[in-house]
Amino acid sequence: MNKNQVSKILNDPVYGFITLNKGILLDLIDHPFFQRLSRIKQLGLTYLVYPGAHHTRFHHAVGATYLMKQAISTIKEMGISITEEEEYGVLMAILLHDIGHGPYSHALEHSFLHEIDHETVSEIFMHKLNAHFNGALDVAIQIFKDEYSKGFLHQLVSSQLDMDRLDYLKRDSFFTGVSEGVVSNQRIIKMFDIDNDEILIKEKGIYSIEKFIVARRLMYWQVYLHKTVLSAEFLLAKIIDRAREIILSGEKLFTTPHILLFLKNKISVNELKNDDCLTAFSSLDDNDIMTCVKVWSSSDDEVLKKLSTMLVNRKLLKVKISDAPFSDKEISALKEKHQKALKIDSHEVNYFVFQEYMINNAYDPRKDTIKVKFKDGTIRDITEASDNLNIRALAKPVTKYYLFAPYF
Question: What 8-state DSSP symbol labels residue 56?
Answer without folding.
Answer: B
